[in-house]
Amino acid sequence: MSFTVAIDGPAAAGKGTISKGVAAHFGFAHLDTGLLYRAVGRRTLEGMEPIAAAEALTAEELQQGDLRTAEIAQAASKVAVIPEVRAALVDFQRAFARRDSGAVLDGRDIGTVICPEAEAKLFVTASAEVRAERRYLELSAKGDDVTREQVLADVRERDARDAERSTAPMKPAEDAVLLDTSDLSVEEALAQAITLIAERKPATP
Ligand code: CDP
Asked: Does the model's pTM come out above 0.70?
């Protein structure tokens, strides 16, 4: 029986960390849907046209190179406003969500557009300053040359673009539970997410 967990929220809110922890806890597969848009964004930085890049995207591309750079994040949020780019990525996400073993998908529009029937929906957020600090530490730890100011500006710019676009804007689904992680440790945030999801999961015989 399929069970889908939708985890949405703004840039660097901790969706990835929580999603990985939730997937490991319940034995679900995890798809970071941001990687799809990042892979398309990378193609456009290489000169490819965004809709063609989205239509030609392969699962292998998601594993190649480092998609988690600040430059690719910006390119991702620019291609993500294009309705045809989003449409080209829908089937892959829905097929992933429907697998029998259970799935966690994280992104911006999972609970609203991709999986409106998801059994559990979380909207993970935190203040822009807290999110930027976490992302700054993550990027500088792997040697990316960024400043705190640049990362905060990037987070704010992407949030605005993601929330204001007309197709599948970032917003909590009406039935999503809000999880503000500003004052929570990773362990606390994960524990709260697991509790919320477990409440929606039928007991296994
Ligand atoms: O990790 P972070 O939260 O910074 O970003 P991400 O989840 O990797 O997403 C990168 C960009 O892809 C976002 O800023 C969005 O513009 C776009 N995206 C989207 O539009 N819809 C999704 N389901 C996932 C990402």
From this structure: yes
